Amino acid sequence: MTNVIKKPGNIFAANTKLQSLSLAMPKLNDVKNMVDNLDVKSIQKTADNLKKQVLGISNSLVNQKASEAGSLATDFLFNKAINPILDQIHRLPKDQQNRLREEIGK
After folding, report:
1. What letter does residue 92 receive in the DSSP assignment?
2. Are 92 and 100 within 8 A, CB to CB?
3. Considering the chain, what is the average pLDDT of its residues?
4. What's the pLDDT score for residue 40?
5. Does residue 39 come out as left (phi exceeding 0), alpha (psi in the -120 to 50 range) or beta?
6. How many whole angstroms separate alpha carbon 37 and alpha carbon 49?
7. Is residue 61 over pLDDT 50?
8. Residue 9 backbone dihedrals phi, psi, to 5 degrees
């Protein structure tokens, strides 16, 4: 009697597993179709596109950082070299400042 009770449960469990597998089959078939459709040329094309994107982003970042470095260098030069000269010029008497302006303007 106990065997008869276990058999329907086993059949139900087996039927549930079959239903799960049948639901998974279309997904497996989709994956198989995708793999079958892959070829070396399409993989190479995808890799080339990715390489171009990475290079483009890298070049953009390098250019941006180079520009920032140039701006920093200009600011540094101005602050350390030109500002002290301008300070000295402003300390001169007005007539000497005017004379310098005339000479620089020539």
Report:
1. S
2. yes
3. 78
4. 74
5. beta
6. 19
7. yes
8. -65, -40
**Cβ neighbours, 10 Å, residue 89:** 13
Cα–Cα distances in angstroms (integers) from residue 65 to residues 12, 62, 68, 71, 82, in the given order = 66, 5, 5, 10, 25
SS3 89: helix
Query: Which single residue is written with the structure tokens 């200009």?
Result: 74
Longest dimension (CA), the chain: 123
Exposed/middle/buried for 50, CB within 10 Å: 0-12, 13-18, 19+? exposed
- On whether the pTM is more than 0.85, the answer is no
pLDDT, tens digit, 9 for 90 and up, residues 11-58: 656 667 666 666 666 666 777 777 777 777 788 888 898 899 988 999
